[in-house]
Amino acid sequence: MISNKEKLPVIDCDVHNQFRSRNDLIPYLDEPWKSHAERFGIPGAGLPYSSPIGSKRKDADPPSGLPLGSDPHYMLEHLVEPFNLDYALLCSDSIIGMSGYADSDHVAAVCRAYNDYLIAEWLPVSPKFKGYLCIGTQDPLEAAREIDRVGPHPDIVAVSVIGGARMPYGQRFFHPIYEACERNGLPLVIHPGAEGAGTFNPPTAVGYVSNYLQWHTCLPQTFMAHLVSFVCEGVFEKYPGFKVVFCEGGVTWLPPLLWRLDKNFKALRSSTPWLKRMPSEYVRDHCFMTTQPIEEPDDFKHLEAMFNMFDAENMLLFSSDYPHWDFDDPTKILQRLPLEKKKKIFSENARQLFKLK
Length: 357
Hints:
Helix 5 (about 140-150) links the parallel strand 3 (about 130-135) and strand 4. About 35% of the residues lie in helices and about 10% in strands. By secondary structure, the protein is an alpha/beta fold. The chain is globular and about 60 Å long. It has helices spanning about 35-40, 70-80, 95, 105-120, 140-150, 175-185, 210-215, 220-230, 235-240, 255-270, 280-285, 300-305, 310-315, 340-355; strands at about 10-15, 85-90, 130-135, 155-160, 190, 245, 285-290, 315.
C-alpha cells in the first residue's frame, strides 16, 4: 500500500453506518412508537431481491463481534485511517428505505430517532464523521420540519432519501423538502436500496425483474427519471440554491440522457415555460454524482471520454460504499486521471458542496 505522504486527501461521500440492533433506536423514540417497538420491534423496508454474494465485504466484520458497520472505532481503524480520509460521510441506507413503509407517522418517528441516535452515538466519536440526516418522503411537510430541527447541527451535512418512490421527485408534492434543504443549506442525497419494495413503484420502467443482478444493473433508470423530473418540473428555478447528489447509481448514463433531454427541449419547451436555460445547464449547476460503483470498461480511454462529455471533474464525488461488497478503494480507482482532476473528485468538490474545512 502506498504511504500516507503519497495519498491524496479523500472525502468519502457514501459510508454506511449500521446498528448493533435496530433496537438501538428505542431509547430515542417518542411514544407511542417506543412502546410499540419494545413489543414488536422496528420495521424496515428491505431489499426486494436477495444478493447471491451477500451485501458485505468479507473483511469488514469488527473483531469485537458486533454487526458489520456498527462499530465506529473499527470503522476509523479499518477505513478512515488506512485510506487517509479527511471525512467519512455517514449514510444509513437501512433507514431511508423506510419511505416504502405505509405508515408515514411511524416512519417519521423512526427517522427522528435515527437522527438523534446518529448525533448522540456516532458523530461525537471522531471529527472525521459527518452525517446525512434521514427523512421519510411520504409526508413532505413533516420531513421539512425534521430538516429544520436537525439541519442546523454542525456535523449534519446533507439530507438523505431513498431512490424508490411513488412518483418522480421533481413533482410539487415533494417541494417542501427542497425548500427546507435550501433554507438550511443542505444538499439532498438520493441513494438506492429498496426500489420495488413496500409501497414503491416497480424497480424498472417495465416492471419487476427476476433477480438481484438485473435489479442492481437497472438502478440508473430510477436516477434518470428523478433527474429529468427535477429539471422539467422547474425545481432548480424555484429553489436556485438547492443541490442534488445522485449516489451509487453509476455515472456514464448521464451524457446521452442530457443530449436527448436538450434535443427534446428545443422542440417541446412550451410544456415547461418556467425553464430559462437548457436542461443540461441546470444539471451542470445543481447536480452531483458519486463515483461508486464506477463503470469499468476494458479500455480506460472509453471512461475518460465519457467524463469529458459531462464536466465530470466538477460533478463527481468520491464514494467507497464501505462496508459493502462492491467497495471502491480510493488508492485503486481513477488513478490514470490527471492529478488536478483527481483532487477535485476525491475531495475538493465534496469539501465545497458540504461546506467542510
